[in-house]
Specification:
The chain is mainly beta. It has one domain: Domain of unknown function (DUF427) (Metal Binding Protein, Guanine Nucleotide Exchange Factor, Chain A). Helix content is about 5%, strand content about 45%. The strands form four sheets. The chain has a seven-stranded antiparallel β-sheet, with no helix packed on it. It has a four-stranded antiparallel β-sheet with strand order 4-3-11-12, with no helix packed on it. A two-stranded parallel ribbon has the order 1-15. Residues about 1-5 have low confidence and may be disordered.
Length: about 160
């Protein structure tokens, strides 16, 4: 019984995450692989925690292999973090459009995200957190990373846009 209580205490409900989002430095090992190549490997990520969303992991630029990224034109606007820049992931001629993003000039309160990159875990072969393979958040807009550490329901699936 004691181990069940401890395990439950380690699980986070995304409905307990704040809005505006919180930044949570993480020492978990985050590894991203595609077509046999390591695109990123860090123990210095920042988790962005927002109500109804699984965490999005932001990886320090220094821990990303930029040989696999090609910056592309265009940007989007986040009401909290500001203007996002994008890159395609390109591995062995295989291109994943606009699969990674970052904030060159994050808005006040999110400055810690400067020089950190996020990516859609469902668009690469494998993204792991402490060895656990991540499940991607549903939908094509949000970049949440679902692990056994978090429970939903999660925004992103059809019918959840208005949450």
């Amino acid at each position: 019984m004691g181990s069940l209580v401890r395990m439950a205490a380690d699980v986070e409900s995304v409905w307990d995450y704040p809005r505006p989002p919180a930044l949570d430095p993480s020492s978990e090992r985050v590894v991203v692989r595609h077509r046999g190549h390591v695109l990123a490997d860090t123990t210095s990520a920042i988790r962005v925690l927002e109500t109804s969303h699984p965490p999005t992991y932001y990886i320090p630029f220094a821990d990303v292999d930029w040989n696999f990224l090609e910056r592309v034109e265009g940007s989007t606007w986040c009401e909290f973090k500001g203007a996002a820049s994008y890159a395609d992931i390109v591995v062995e001629g295989h291109r994943i459009p606009r699969a990674a993003w970052w904030y060159e000039t994050p808005t006040p309160g999110f400055e810690a995200l400067k020089d950190y990159l996020a990516l859609y875990p469902g668009r690469v072969d494998e993204a792991t957190v402490d060895g656990e393979v991540v499940q991607a958040q549903e939908g094509d807009f949000y970049g949440g990373w679902i692990t056994s550490r978090v429970v939903g329901p999660f925004k992103g699936a059809p019918g959840t846009l208005g949450w």
